Amino acid sequence: LISSATKSLRTETEILEKKLQDAQMKLAEKDGDKEKEIQSLKRLISELEFQLTMEKSNNESFLDKLRKEIKHKSDELEKLTQERTQLIHSLSQVQEENSLLQDTVRRECEERFELTAALGRAREQVLELRRLSGTL
Questions:
Q1: Which 8-state DSSP code applies to residue 130?
Q2: CA–CA gap between residue 59 and residue 52 (Å, rounded)
């Protein structure tokens, strides 16, 4: 009876040890798979971090380029605004000078008209004086 029970326990122990070994092998296999997956994820994280760094660098470079372009355009706009202001001032001066010249021409034309009229009257007087002196 003891021998049979011992044999039965040994058989059961061997079966349990085999199951334990199988379970340990499966566990070791799962641990290996998990380790591979962890390494794969670490590589993926490294690649993504590198891509992120590159994107940040590209974005900073692009932003620097845009800032320089904005500064250039701003300087150009300021220069054009100054030129416009100067041109408006020059135009105002030219218009004022033109108005002054037009007024001068108008006055000279009036004087010429008056002088022409006075010359006409003087001719008439000279002619009248000649007729009078001829009759005398």
A1: H
A2: 10
Decide: helix, strand or coil at residue 136.
Answer: coil
- Token pair listed for 16: 């349990």
Residue 1 three-state SS: coil
Tens digits of per-residue pLDDT, 115-132?
A: 999 999 999 999 999 998
Residue tagged 């962890």 (tokens): 38
60: its two tokens: 């900073």
pTM: 0.51
Residue whose pair of structure tokens reads 């021409």 in the numeric block: 105
Length of the chain: 136
Measured distance CA(31)–CA(8) in Å, rounded: 34
